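Hello again,

I reread your note about wanting to compare the complex against the isolated chains. To keep things tidy I'm splitting this into two emails, and this first one only covers the full assembly. Below are the input lines as submitted, including protein chains and any nucleic acid or small-molecule components. They are followed by the predicted structure of everything together. The single-chain runs will come separately.
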Amino acid sequence: MSIMQIIDGKLTAATIKAEIKAEVENIVAAGGKRPHLAAILVGHDGGSETYVRNKVLACEACGFQSTLLRFENDITEQQLLEEVDKLNRDESVDGFIVQLPLPKHISEQKVIEAIDYRKDVDGFHPINVGRMAIGLPCYISATPKGILELLRRYNIPTSGKKCVILGRSNIVGKPMAQLMMQKQFGDSTVTVCHSRSKTLKEECLQADIIIAAIGQPAFLKADMVKPGAVVIDVGTTRVPDATRKSGFRLSGDVDFEHVAPLCSYITPVPGGVGPMTICMLMLNTLAAGKHLYY
Amino acid sequence: MSIMQIIDGKLTAATIKAEIKAEVENIVAAGGKRPHLAAILVGHDGGSETYVRNKVLACEACGFQSTLLRFENDITEQQLLEEVDKLNRDESVDGFIVQLPLPKHISEQKVIEAIDYRKDVDGFHPINVGRMAIGLPCYISATPKGILELLRRYNIPTSGKKCVILGRSNIVGKPMAQLMMQKQFGDSTVTVCHSRSKTLKEECLQADIIIAAIGQPAFLKADMVKPGAVVIDVGTTRVPDATRKSGFRLSGDVDFEHVAPLCSYITPVPGGVGPMTICMLMLNTLAAGKHLYY
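Full-complex prediction:
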């Protein structure tokens, strides 16, 4: 039996950001343009504020230019669409994001579809979703891209393996399934389980790789995992914790304490998939700066 | 043990075409516009000629207007893109297709992406592929849509069932997986197997529903199928047959003779999924005529 290894997302993300910074400095030294990420933030949601701040900090770490555009909650859909259009036409901006969620009176889907897909570094535009599904070059959204990157950098074999994905959300489960089944990415036998699955435990017990993105703290128990399996935990549910200053802690979808000893590789929460997501946004921004998907 | 039932795609397709025709006549009687499908055919490939002829005949059966635009094999990519653009701008045309394959000097992907997604009744444009993947209203391509329709019309339960898809092609396996996993369509536990899968037989033996789209004649044998399973055969490989005037017969991916007695439902080849595809193009054209996805 091999030794269990914890996949260090924080370290991997730091390594990738250093790689990006080195490449950016090379580009700039050769007379090229510094990649420029813009972000639109509507309102004052605490979570969104934190995410956007961290994205701006990551831009600095990578040597990117960044621009933050803030609007109040009472911005109309039409006004926001006009701001998106300005960024589409602004040649100095290589890629941009609109931080979600948006106020209820604005259609998120309409805003996403208004973004020029060539600047859509979040990878949420249907053109990018569709191009990813059929294996064409495109922006891949942060979480699935980050998981692929962790598997790759830890040299975890995926081809021909049975990969079980728990959850079928549009931002994790579905794209993850599409990527893990494709020859040029996971090349795995992929099973997607969800709330209606009658054989979820049996599927998990057969899995070489389990990607848990179901949003239920400690859902995946030790009796659902085959010895030697690789477990990727995408869950980040806030659970009350009086011992923390914040009053909560982040809980993954995996019962880490009991599952980890069984695994060949496992991601912790926090410090696993989480730190990779902003880092993948940075990789997408680097690609945008190079006009890689034009 | 229940009795095996053969799913009659030919009869189902005829029923749907009659339903479409009735709806079209209602639309026209109410002063509405007759749906209009245009098709671009490049060159003289025998298979393409047959497909396009059958599409034109199906349009007649449905009460649609149809237009066939023919070009020789030496048409340039630029000229073809201009023809696509004309159809995009032609308000009398509700939907159109470019019959594939195209000559080698023309990028099929470029042509597909040039089609206005609102007229893309084949459902191959990345916007439609992407919208389908995230469960938004859109044109769904003919083969997966036809399979969903057969399951629905035969009242075959899919929710919570284990569905194994053999093959990961862009036109069948991948979209089929996306649809079968979504709540509003199959709602199944979906597994995609392919050439690199090490546990294909085990997966099949656990399946309530098997959708075979692997392109290998009689690949699915009786010892891979659980009694009572539903088997959908998408294979249509031409195999030499000296007893036929054409010199060949169509073979499915399923060893029908030995698998059928085990099944609760099974599609034959020919006469199963095949006849549904053109019929689904007609349903998409009807939707185009109603501007359903504008």
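For quick reference: Chain A has two domains: 30-116, 141-274.

B.
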